[in-house]
């Protein structure tokens, strides 16, 4: 994996040298914009409209438009100094319970490995977090951007998850048309809860596949082979008259699946050993 950042975790007076790696990767199929007329891929240039010329990266800086057409400029070193990126530090401010953080705050996950030195300090922090069940709330600057972060343990690895600042989370009150009070039909609620129970299962991420990416790759391969793209017809949706009918139909649809799960559990569960037969008595089969 490619190292995206090097620095140290600090909590109290303890410093833990670490290297950072991205824990996730996008699997999107990359496509380019093509000129239909000649099928040439389009290119994008950094052009100055005043000088009417292409601008090299070395001639580019960043600026903030405080009035229309008026900017204050910042060099890379200035931004790094302001953001604290130059310190290369993950500074833990507090330790909290993971359940105290709503998932809406989480952004991106990184793995942290021990640096070239300080393996003992890394192991100490890892075990301390494991045994206390806490996570650290820290600050970090990556690529001139300051972020809050959660420092936690995944298996035998310390992980860092960047999290939004509170003012970056939009208030629920901004969502239109939310119901003012819960007013649902008791029978519908009972059936909805039954449906949720029927569909409940342990989380197994491996069984969820990106169907769009699979279909797109198949279409690409067909086009490369000079074939017409074959797309499966969409399943017709049944017009459901009311919510109760929809719930009833949904429950009926998942019953075979639920039955299969029950059968699988029954087969997996070992049967109790049969009791020895007594004289002149018929042994009863033990049902497990």
From TrEMBL:
Q: What function does this protein fulfil?
A: With LigD forms a non-homologous end joining (NHEJ) DNA repair enzyme, which repairs dsDNA breaks with reduced fidelity. Binds linear dsDNA with 5'- and 3'- overhangs but not closed circular dsDNA nor ssDNA. Recruits and stimulates the ligase activity of LigD.
Q: Which Pfam families match?
A: Ku (PF02735)
The Ku domain extends over: 52-180
Give the protein family.
Belongs to the prokaryotic Ku family.
Alphabetized, the UniProt keywords read:
DNA damage, DNA recombination, DNA repair, DNA-binding
Q: Highest taxon of the source?
A: Bacteria
Q: GO BP, one example?
A: double-strand break repair via nonhomologous end joining
Which SMART domains does this one have? Answer: Ku78 (SM00559)
Basic and acidic residues compositional bias, start-end: 279-288
Q: How does it assemble?
A: Homodimer. Interacts with LigD.
Q: Which PANTHER family match?
A: NON-HOMOLOGOUS END JOINING PROTEIN KU (PTHR41251:SF1)
Q: Where does the chain cross the membrane?
A: none
Question: Does the UniProt entry include the keyword Transmembrane?
Answer: no
Return the Basic residues bias intervals. 267-278
Tell me the GO molecular function terms: double-stranded DNA binding
Positions of the UniProt region annotated as Disordered: 256-288
| Name of the featured protein | Non-homologous end joining protein Ku
Which ranges of the sequence are coiled-coil? none
């Amino acid at each position: 994996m490619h190292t995206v950042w090097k620095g140290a975790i600090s909590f109290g007076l303890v410093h833990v040298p670490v290297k950072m790696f991205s824990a996730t990767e996008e699997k999107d199929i990359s496509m380019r914009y093509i000129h239909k007329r000649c099928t040439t891929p389009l290119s994008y240039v950094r052009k100055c409209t005043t000088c009417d010329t292409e601008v090299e990266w070395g001639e580019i800086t960043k600026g903030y438009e405080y009035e229309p057409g008026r900017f204050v400029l910042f060099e890379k070193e200035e931004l790094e100094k302001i953001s604290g990126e130059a310190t290369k530090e993950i500074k833990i401010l507090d330790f909290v319970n993971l359940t105290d953080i709503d998932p809406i705050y989480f952004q991106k996950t990184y793995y942290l490995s021990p640096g070239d030195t300080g393996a003992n300090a890394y192991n100490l922090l890892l075990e301390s977090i494991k045994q206390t069940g806490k996570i650290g709330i820290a600050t970090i600057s990556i690529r001139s951007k300051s972020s809050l972060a959660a420092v936690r343990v995944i298996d035998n690895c310390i992980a860092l998850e960047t999290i939004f600042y509170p003012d970056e989370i939009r208030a629920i009150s901004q969502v239109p048309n939310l119901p003012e009070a819960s007013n649902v039909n008791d029978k519908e609620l009972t059936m909805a809860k039954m449906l949720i129970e029927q569909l409940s299962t342990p989380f197994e991420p491996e069984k969820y596949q990106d169907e769009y990416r699979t279909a797109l790759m198949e279409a690409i391969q067909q086009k490369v082979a000079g074939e017409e793209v074959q797309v499966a017809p969409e399943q017709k949706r049944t017009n459901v008259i009311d919510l109760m009918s929809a719930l009833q139909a949904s429950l009926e649809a998942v019953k075979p699946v639920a039955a299969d799960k029950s059968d699988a559990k029954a087969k997996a569960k070992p049967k109790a050993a049969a009791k020895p037969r007594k004289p002149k008595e018929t042994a009863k089969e033990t049902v497990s």
